[in-house]
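hiii, so i know i said id send this last week but things got crazy w the move. better late than never?? heres the sequnce for the chain we talked about at the cafe, plus the structure i predicted for it. fair warning i was half asleep when i ran it
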Amino acid sequence: MKKRKFELNSRLVSRVLIGLIVLLVIGIGAGSWFLQKTLTERATETDHTKIDAELSQTELQRAKSLEIYLNQNKAAVEKAQSVVAETKTYQYQNQIVNDIESYAAKAGVSILGYSFPVDTSAAKPDASGLKTVGATLTLKNPVDYVSYLKFLKYIEQNVTKMQITDITLTPDRNNPNQVDSPTVGLKVYVR
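okay and structure toks below
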């Protein structure tokens, strides 16, 4: 009986040891897999960080070289700034021209030309403190007097806040219902 008990105990011990060895192998495998996965993620993260640092360094070098270029070419930079500033100040002119063309079409008059100040950045505040810029319109000859009055009325009633500052006209010698050489001076409110 002792022999049988010993055999039973040895079998049990060997099975327990085999089970422990299998669990140990499985644990080592799972640990290796987890460690490998973690290391791979960290390596990828490190590579991305390295690439970002290299890109940042390249951008920094590009910015420094651009700064040097801009410092060496100040005249060209100032000229470019003035061109950009001028095109922005002409933005209001497009609105004025569009509005006046629609008023002229409604009134039945034709516009020959527009005259805006050369230095549009010098908008001057008027008595109310609002900035204004002048403009002059020249109309095609001859103009029907009633149409001319309608045109002036449309300008005065506009939404974009233009005011007539002066008008010039000469009576037509051939037709008393028409005027020659009409011009209209405007004060335009700008921002």
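btw The first strand starts at residue 111 and ends at 115. thought thatd interest u
miss u guys!!
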